[in-house]
Amino acid sequence: MKFFICFLAVFAFVIHFNGDPVWGDTSKPLSINELTAKPQTHIGKVVVVGRVAAVTPSKGFTLIDSAKCATCTTECLTDKNTKKIPVLWAGTAPVVKNVVRVQGTLSKKQNGFIFIADNVTKQ
Fold it and tell me: Would you say which domain of life the source belongs to (predicted)?
């Protein structure tokens, strides 16, 4: 019986860490400002919440901080101090000005970072 319980625990551990990522409701989403401040500390699976600033259908969209740019005017896009995150996403494009929660993977590339979305939901 003890062997079976230990085997079951190890099996569950291996499935959890070797299988597809499991997104839990307990993942505290980062703001765009938090992610852009230290992106190297968030490499891997990450959840962010931001306001959609621009959309390129079938390719992705750009997020800005939803709290700082609550009015979402074009000034946020042209302001050099506004932090932006381009998100690669082939699914249905979110609506500009909506606040969305994005689950995805942040990777380091030669010229910077890339964020590929796995799931996008309106907040």
Answer: Bacteria
CA distance 90 to 36: 23
The number of domains in the chain is 1
**In this structure, is residue 13 part of a structural domain?**
no
Tell whether 110 is covered by a domain: yes
Residue range(s) defining the domain that contains residue 31: 23-122
Q: How far apart are CA 107 and CA 43, in angstroms?
A: 6
State how far the alpha carbon of 36 is from the alpha carbons of 22, 29, 56, 75, 80, in Å: 24, 13, 21, 19, 13
pTM: 0.74
Cα separation of 21 and 24, whole Å?
Answer: 9
| CATH number of the domain within which 60 lies | 2.40.50.200
pLDDT digits (tens, 9 = 90+) for 9-44: 333 333 344 444 444 444 689 999 999 999 999 999
Question: What DSSP character marks residue 33?
Answer: H
Q: What is the pLDDT of residues 58-72, one digit of tens each?
A: 999 999 987 767 665
Which H helix or E strand runs over 2? helix 2-18
